[in-house]
Design goal:
HTH_HxlR, 55% helix, DNA binding, Arc Repressor Mutant, subunit A, mainly alpha, DNA-binding, WH-like_DNA-bd_sf
Length: 127
């Protein structure tokens, strides 16, 4: 059975192939999502600022990721009617709830970088 937070009788199962929770996990587990949410956790940002801060993201991937995050209710896009038009992105309340878990993953990756690097070198050398 698939759940929504507003209906306690429904329950998601990310291990079921057809469960929508898999799509949510795909979204929040995406590397660009992790980095974009991290930047937006520091405050609202324009597209150009996000692109500058998230090194390596292409314009296309940034656009796709922001649209997906907006569709999922994690990011709010605000268009300011100015000349030229100014567009800002911000985390929604739901998006802010991701900051803790995503920061924990970022901290884990920093803390275990040398262990993972050593394991990769050992594995690659054993081939």
């Amino acid at each position: 059975m698939v759940t929504t937070q507003s209906d306690p009788m429904l329950r998601g199962d990310p291990y079921a192939a057809d469960c929508p929770t898999r799509r949510i996990l795909d979204r929040i587990g995406d590397r660009w999502t992790v980095l974009i949410v991290g930047v937006l956790g520091e405050g609202d940002a324009r597209f150009s600022e996000l692109r500058r801060r998230v090194c390596g993201v292409s314009q296309k991937m940034l656009t796709q990721t922001l649209r997906g995050l907006e569709r999922d209710g994690l990011v709010r896009r605000t268009v300011h009617p100015e000349v030229p038009v100014r567009v800002e992105y911000a985390l929604t309340e739901a998006g802010r709830t991701l900051l803790g878990p995503l920061r924990a993953l970022q901290e884990w990756s920093i803390e275990h970088l040398s262990d993972v690097s050593a394991a990769q070198k050992a594995y690659d050398g054993a081939e």
